[in-house]
Amino acid sequence: MYFRTLTIFIIISKFSGILSSNGDRSPFYQNCLKTCRKANCTDDGRSFKSAALKQQDVWCQLLQWSCREDCQYHCMWKTVDGFQERGYRIPKFHGKWPFVRFFGVQEPASAFASLLNLATHIYMHNEITKKFSVKSTPLVLFWHGFATVCMNAWTWSTIFHTRDTPFTEFMDYACALSMVMSLFIAAIVRRKKFAAALLALPTLYYVEHVRYLYSGRIDYDYNMNVNVFFGVVGSVTWLVWAGGMLVAGRKHAWRVAVFTIASGAALSLELLDFPPKRSWDAHALWHLSTAPLPLLFYRFVIDDLYYLQNSKIRDKNYLKQT
Questions:
Q1: pTM score
Q2: Which of 291, 288, 271 lies closest to 280, judged by CA?
Q3: Is residue 279 within 8 Å of 96, Cβ to Cβ?
Q4: Which residues partner with 102 through β-bridges?
């Protein structure tokens, strides 16, 4: 669940926008690329020459790996072998660790973990749908929208880790921020003391931020700072609200407090940023560690909806008596 409290959601290892790394800067890698492209690619670098096309497996063809990208992949692993033979550490390439493709999937572990997060959200959203009516339950429509935003974000995370292209990268970053900001907005909505006008501000900012990201090459530092800001503010808001509810005897608030703390703890995996072992790097393990968290968060949502539902019934009965 990308509920990345203290959320630096797209940071560190996911920020693949670094223009170069030790691996792709190496002369061995650059010479390998030139040789591979000359032997296998047409002038535009996208298409394969007829003989080379026969060597590409069907999965890579289905996922539309270009000749240039295929050369980058094979030269990457030749360079890794060269580094290791000389006793050097495994290098990064274009800001990313090297991953072994699996049925054409670029980062199989991260894609699988993203898919698990998506499945957990779908399952818990179905639980809310079965238990509550939109007409009779306060805030349930908002939580339907919230779950939809999260499911969309994890869908694009799965696509991005399956095939990293400029468009899938943009969609992953934009949708990841939509989830961070949705959690922030949810904290505002649940406190009730804030007017709808206040909710419009982060929404309008999000639209402007996405427009800015789409206007050209992504400014990763700026994007990271935006995620950090809304993640931290959202987390603090939830913790303050949960603390107040627990003091008032609303015991179900412990779930959102534990969720917030657990999300921050899971972030430590991202900060470690170690190379993959059997396709599992720090980033993939981070995604894997967040997969159970929707079970906790949505359980809080369900308990809170029951609480709001009962409060509404009590208020109606009180009005009838008076």
A1: 0.80
A2: 288
A3: no
A4: 105
Cα torsion 110, 116, 119, 121: sign: negative
3-state secondary structure 13-67: HHCCCCCCCHHHHCHHHHHHHHHHHHHHECCCCCCECHHHHCCCCHHHHHCCCCH
Q: Considering only CA atoms, which of 278, 286, 274 is closest in space to residue 99?
A: 278
Q: Which tokens sit at 24?
A: 């792709």
C-alpha separations of 28 from 34, 35, 78, 160, 217 in Å: 10, 11, 9, 28, 27
| Mean pLDDT, 10 residues at a time, the chain of 322 residues | 40 42 83 88 81 78 88 90 86 84 91 96 95 85 94 95 89 89 86 63 77 70 75 86 86 91 83 80 90 94 88 50 42
Report the alpha-carbon distance of residue 121 to residue 143 in Å, rounded.
12
Tokens at residue 248, please? 């008032």
Tell me how crowded residue 308 is: count the other CB atoms within 10 A of its CB.
Answer: 16
309 within 8 A of 143, measured Cβ to Cβ = no
